[in-house]
Design goal:
This protein is mostly beta strands. It has a single domain, classed as Sandwich (Jelly Rolls). The chain has two helices and nine strands. It is globular, with a radius of gyration of 18 Å. About 4% of the residues have low confidence.
Length: 187
């Protein structure tokens, strides 16, 4: 008999586990990864330094080296408001788009650039207007992407605005790790 796993997905009170709803179906696809003892989480942040702004009508290109049999399962995209060199808060990433390409196969995650707002985890707001969550739960992909061969992933973030943009994209991977003993510790 399988035991229940207590993790951040189960403890999140905002998730409503209704049958045949998208979040329950997406979590069902992640069940093998949640139960695997030889996978660990790897989060890639682009750009890695928040102070690196994307210039107006500019673009940032970055390559990520992934290990064999890594799975991309979620992402978040944040835009930050800045005044006088001080970061004030997080907003929806308007006028930003991105493209993710598997360099080994040449497959892109979309036929065109993806609107960054699709990866913005909107916080829950009560009827009185009070924010209930910080919005840190990753947006789950409709289908986790398996990278069978080790290689590179190219990420392009484009700023379509006439002003500089301070933003960060977080890509959530599960990557295999080498088992040290029969336990679930990774090397």
């Amino acid at each position: 008999m399988l035991t229940n796993i207590v993790d951040g997905w189960i403890l999140n009170p905002s998730i409503k586990y209704l049958p045949y709803r998208s979040i329950a179906m997406l979590l069902g696809q992640l069940e093998p990864l949640r139960r695997a003892h030889n996978y660990r989480e790897q989060i890639w942040v682009i750009p890695d330094d928040l102070r690196n702004a994307i210039p107006a009508r500019g673009q940032v290109n970055r390559q990520i080296r992934v290990t064999e049999n890594s799975v991309l399962w979620g992402a978040t995209f944040y835009k930050f408001t800045v005044e006088g060199g001080h970061f004030l808060g997080v907003t929806a990433p308007t006028l930003l788009s991105l493209q993710i390409t598997d360099d080994a196969t040449g497959c892109q995650f979309g036929s065109e650039f993806i609107n960054a707002q699709c990866l913005y985890p909107r916080p829950d707001v009560s009827p009185t207007g009070i924010t209930l969550l910080s919005g840190s739960t990753p947006c789950l992909l409709t289908q986790p992407r398996l990278f069978v061969k080790p290689g590179l992933i190219s990420v392009e973030i484009a700023n379509l605005d006439t002003a500089v943009a301070y933003c960060q994209l977080c890509l959530y991977f599960s990557e295999p790790c080498e088992l040290v003993d029969r336990g679930s510790q990774c090397a």
